[in-house]
């Protein structure tokens, strides 16, 4: 028997506070001009999608969204791991300011008085609703629950659970038996779309949008968080048929590509990945692609709902991912590296009557920029301490340079050592500079104009005694980018230091609470 569950929570205190905020916010001045927001986010999605130039992966609905909005060619997360990235994005703060550097945590444990993006919209009179994953969830265990959510962010929470969580886990192949969320795992499901969690998300979004169309006394902020293509890569079998195993692209020249890479940059490698052979690699990539195309189909259903209910002409649409994803490049799989595959994310923003429909902005931007951008576009008051930039000028003119760079970070440790060190990377229009432990454990410099795949670390010189380049032009570039990176790290670090979360971690598990 197929079991699917929908858990819906309406926060009673939220309705009152939102109504009070709406009454005190001069509705005559704002109600006619404030647009709605449809915020869609995928989980573990890299830029191997059609509108980003991948000829193999079928994403017709993201492609049509890109055709009506602005596609950001060089968008990056601030920490390539679900929990830290999502807290940073939804707080508009760097991870050093949120203090969230691991999963299973929420910013209320470190900076409890901060207003998140949807919280600010609630206080600005918006109806704020969440369907699926926005903050961190332990996937798949927490599917169907609130996960590590922030109740103040939402007036309504809907948590569907489909067959991929409730029925099919015993059938899923995994490199580690019984492990799915953090391990490469996949399954071509015999069950139809409508029984899967992401399809249920799209169905619930249609219901919420219908409600909003009938009761349009205030604008809405609807966040839809899809779970695919996060592991386990589960999608209906028909999506697998789009991708032939023998045509799945495998990373080439991996050993040669690693010759100039500091060991610290490869610490996201997992022992079980050594179990992969070429047939398994092709199966994993096929399943990842199938999960993307399945998720894209659900995006299409939500976009169709927006049109059908007459809401598209006054709704800002955002689509993005929490971070990128490795599929074998540099011998790495999944996330937590500072290479382009892991740090880069798709980002599309469509505004009503946008001036730059179908155009591409190439200046580097970050997920940290979404909070100030949406607050700016919607005339919503935001905290003064936000650390991103508004992308509104780029939406009006895609040639606008913006800040000109963005930064990302990760934590690292060696083996069983308890002490952590950090890697920080800065991405400009031309370069990526990465410092491991402030250059004590490695430096990487890549010129993206000549080397978009990051195969040639300019900071490395195998002929030098210490393997460090002596080229003065390269050293000058490293020096100037290091100053810029240090300045931005300092700007993201609170005066009293990085806030520490309470010493506890928690997992919400619907079937084993």
From TrEMBL:
Residues 490-513 are annotated as: Disordered. Gene3D superfamilies: Alkaline Phosphatase, subunit A. One of its GO terms (molecular function) is iduronate-2-sulfatase activity. It holds the Pfam family Sulfatase. Its cofactor is Ca(2+). Keywords: Calcium, Hydrolase, Metal-binding, Signal. One of its GO terms (cellular component) is cytoplasm. Belongs to the sulfatase family. This is Iduronate-2-sulfatase. The lineage of its organism: Bacteria, Pseudomonadati, Planctomycetota, Planctomycetia, Pirellulales.
């Amino acid at each position: 028997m197929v079991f699917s569950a929908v858990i819906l929570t309406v926060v009673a205190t939220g309705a009152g506070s939102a109504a009070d905020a709406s009454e005190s916010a001069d509705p005559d001045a704002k109600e006619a001009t404030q647009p709605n927001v449809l915020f869609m986010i995928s989980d573990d999605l890299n830029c191997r999608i059609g509108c980003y130039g991948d000829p193999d992966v079928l994403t017709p609905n993201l492609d049509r969204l890109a055709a009506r909005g602005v596609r950001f060619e060089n968008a990056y997360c601030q920490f390539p791991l679900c929990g830290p990235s999502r807290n940073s994005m939804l707080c508009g703060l760097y991870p050093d300011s949120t203090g969230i550097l691991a999963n299973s945590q929420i910013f209320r444990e470190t900076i409890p008085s901060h207003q998140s993006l949807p919280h600010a919209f609630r206080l600005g009179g918006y109806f704020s609703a969440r369907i699926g994953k926005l903050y961190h969830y332990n996937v798949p265990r927490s599917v169907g629950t609130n996960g590590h959510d922030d109740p103040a962010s939402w007036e309504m929470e809907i948590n569907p659970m489909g067959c991929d969580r409730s029925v099919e886990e015993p059938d899923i192949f995994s490199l580690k038996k019984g492990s799915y969320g953090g391990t490469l795992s996949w399954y071509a499901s015999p069950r139809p779309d409508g029984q899967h969690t992401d399809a249920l998300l799209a169905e619930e979004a249609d219901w919420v949008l219908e409600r909003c169309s009938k009761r349009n006394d205030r604008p809405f902020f609807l966040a839809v968080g899809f779970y695919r293509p996060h592991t386990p890569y589960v999608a209906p079998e028909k999506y697998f048929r789009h991708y032939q195993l023998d045509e799945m692209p495998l990373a080439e020249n991996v050993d040669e590509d690693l010759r100039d890479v500091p060991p610290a940059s490869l610490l996201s490698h997992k022992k079980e990945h050594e179990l992969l052979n070429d047939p398994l690699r092709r199966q994993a990539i096929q399943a990842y692609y199938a999960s993307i195309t399945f998720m894209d189909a659900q995006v299409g259903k939500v976009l169709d709902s927006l049109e059908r209910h007459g809401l598209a002409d006054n709704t800002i649409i955002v689509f993005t991912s929490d971070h990128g994803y490795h599929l074998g490049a540099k011998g790495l799989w999944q996330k937590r590296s500072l290479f382009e595959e892991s740090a880069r994310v798709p980002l599309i923003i469509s505004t009503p009557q946008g001036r730059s429909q179908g155009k591409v902005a190439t200046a580097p931007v970050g997920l940290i920029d979404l909070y100030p951008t949406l607050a700016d576009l919607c005339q919503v008051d935001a905290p003064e301490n936000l650390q991103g930039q508004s992308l509104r000028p780029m939406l009006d003119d895609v040639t606008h340079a913006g800040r000109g760079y963005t930064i990302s970070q990760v934590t690292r440790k060696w083996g069983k050592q308890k002490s952590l060190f950090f890697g920080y990377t800065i991405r400009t229009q031309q370069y990526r500079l990465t410092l491991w432990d402030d250059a004590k454990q490695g430096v990487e410099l890549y010129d993206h104009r000549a080397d978009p795949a990051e195969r040639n670390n300019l900071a490395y010189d195998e002929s030098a005694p210490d393997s460090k380049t002596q080229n003065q032009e390269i050293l000058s570039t490293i020096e100037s980018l290091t100053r810029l990176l240090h300045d931005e790290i300092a700007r993201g670090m609170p005066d009293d230091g990085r806030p520490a979360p309470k010493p506890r971690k928690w997992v919400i598990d619907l079937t084993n609470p």
